[in-house]
Write a structure and sequence with these properties.
The chain is α/β, with parallel strands linked by helices and 441 residues long. It has 13 helices and 22 strands. Strand 8, helix 7 and strand 9 form a beta-alpha-beta unit. The relative contact order is 0.16. It binds ligand LLP.
Amino acid sequence: MIRRIQSLPGRPPGFLYRESKQGIFRHKRKFVLHCDEIALPKLVAKYGTPLYVYSAPMICERYATFDRAFRESPHTICYSVKANSNLSILRLLARRGCGFDVVSGGELERVLMADRKAAHKVVFSGVGKTREEMTAALKAGTMLFNVESESELWALAECAARLRTRAPVALRVNPDVAAQTHPYISTGLHKHKFGVPIRYARALYAKASGAKSLRVVGVSVHIGSQITDVAPFGEALARVAELVRVLRDDGHRIEYIDAGGGLGIAYKEPERSGFAKDAASYARAVSEPLRALGVHLLLEPGRSIVGPAGALITTVMYRKANDGKRFLVVDAAMNDLIRPALYSAYHEIVPVTYPDSDAKVEVVDVVGPVCESGDFFARDRELPPIEEESLLAILDAGAYGMALASNYNTRTRPAEVLVSGKSVKVIRKRERLADLMRAEM
Ligand code: LLP
């Protein structure tokens, strides 16, 4: 397991085992998981568990790799804030010239707090924007509104008219393309609530261009998340390209195509082939159908930028066996990372300190303290024997981890730290019980 993690091409520099200096004898050598230059037990000693740890260089590296993959097309990357909305992470990306995809007034506010100047690189998506949110986004100077229904279009027109401005608009079309992913995060079929059916789009564009306070500038599409076969992206964009040709013939000036997000990551180790390769084949699938159109491409990646750059560190509190079934009860729970409970998602789990020898494995369930049988991180997982008090790292937790954390069971949410080389920054303090109760007093 150690060798495999050390050689993973998708994890530079991020999370690596390094040999601990302490053992003199070979059989006592230990390998300790580091985030960049920092040994995780050192972080835990200072900040406790459960703890979210992110590698800043890995986030930057993945952003740069994604950006490079699209170098042949004029484009803007609008990082999808929902994946991980921590202000420090937004600031890190903003400094590199990244734009943002937001789906609420709250996310917009975060982007503005991270970097006021980023507003002109913000796309506002979402099926239920309120008038207040649209007004705030117009005032901030948002680059593009991805509108998802006719009613929303008129609401936006009204808000823009009131501010005596014109809202830049794309319709999010639903291309009726199936993507192989979990049903909860698949969005591109007509049965889903998202977008307007592509065959009605032409008529709606005609109506939109009649409104003085709207400026029709783009077409947008997003077919789902955690998609690892890039063919459906190509299919969706081919349909969008066809629509753009029709719209241009109708006289619309379509400058932008927003291809949404959705590029998946390899949560399971054998599927990992390196991010540069994955990003390149995704870029080919997306840009090929648009080649002759001369549009500015917008991309909304979330998971693929931050997912592998984060891990959730947890302490094993108790070992227990119920009739031969073995459990490791850890101090993190479904409220901290809900993906396994909600989507039966697989996250690789590794011991933070790994023995040098290839010790035998045991089959365990890794579970949290919350009062639900769905509160697990792994079922029937092979792990080396883990003692009580030792640390585990739940990998690939940088996206949709902390962003979906809750206070279920009145549990305070974890702290988050951002590591860069040898430097460590607490980017979110551990919540205290007083923080939870405050609004109820
Ligand atoms: N753009 C739009 C319009 C979206 O709805 C999403 C994700 C993205 C971009 C970013 O997609 P990404 O590149 O991260 O796949 N909680 C789920 C994922 C929900 C995704 C929702 N929309 C999970 O943990 O798997």
